[in-house]
Specification:
With 211 residues, the chain is of the alpha/beta class. It has seven helices and six strands. The protein has one domain. A four-stranded parallel β-sheet has the order 1-2-3-6, with helices on one face. The termini are far apart.
Length: 211
């Protein structure tokens, strides 16, 4: 009974309080739960569409959508991020950056991929060989580039969890005799390296602004 009463009090207090998010995240309040938009940038959106996203969503993630093949999507995301922040500087823009599968529309990013891709023998899908340290460093470097070059506040690492499952295409590409634990550990290392690079950039910009 006492435990239930304490829990009820804590829930009541949390409902009345405004929760201040960590730096880099949207402010949070129970009066307005942050909204997230997952949007294809295509070949660029209209002014009204950018304004709608900026004024109605706290987090906006741009992916390629129906953009033309062979045309880099990265500059379009960079322009979209600028457009959204013009209408609302508080909106956080995320860069879609798949953690496992080669996505052909990310032309600029893929141009610096080190070495050969892995291939799923069943589907022909190409994957990043994240067991190689140089691939993890490359991927983390693109994540940081999204912040410094593409005007984004972070990344959306699609497929980071789903890829590291028994029997998934990523696992097949490595050969199912390969330990899934090794793949999961490599994925975690890659995400942590990306996080470190992005945080170091954030610290640099803060110091730069103070000088």
């Amino acid at each position: 009974m006492r435990t239930a009463l304490v829990l009820q009090v804590l829930l009541l207090l949390s409902a009345l309080a405004t929760v201040h998010a960590g730096e880099g995240y949207p402010d949070f309040s129970w009066d307005h739960v942050p909204l997230y938009a997952h949007v294809g940038v295509n070949n660029g959106l209209t002014t009204d569409q950018y304004k709608f996203l900026a004024t109605n969503f706290d987090l906006v993630m741009f992916t390629a959508g129906y953009s033309k093949n062979g045309v880099p999507v990265e500059p379009k995301v960079a322009d979209a991020a600028i457009a959204v922040k013009f209408y609302n500087p508080l909106t956080k823009v995320l860069f879609y950056w798949c953690a496992s599968v080669k996505k052909g529309k990310w032309v600029d990013s893929l141009s610096t991929y080190p070495g050969a891709y892995l291939i799923d023998p069943d589907t022909g899908t190409e994957y990043y060989d994240i067991l190689r340290p140089e691939v993890r460093t490359w991927w983390a470097g693109i994540a940081a580039k999204a912040v410094i070059n593409y005007n984004c506040g972070g990344i959306f690492p699609d497929g980071a969890a789903a890829a590291c499952r028994e029997g998934a295409g990523f696992h097949r590409a490595y050969g199912e005799s390969n330990s899934i634990t090794n793949l999961r550990n490599a994925m975690i290392d890659m995400l942590q390296e990306a996080n470190t690079k992005i945080l170091n950039l954030t610290d640099f910009f803060k110091e730069f602004q103070r000088t």
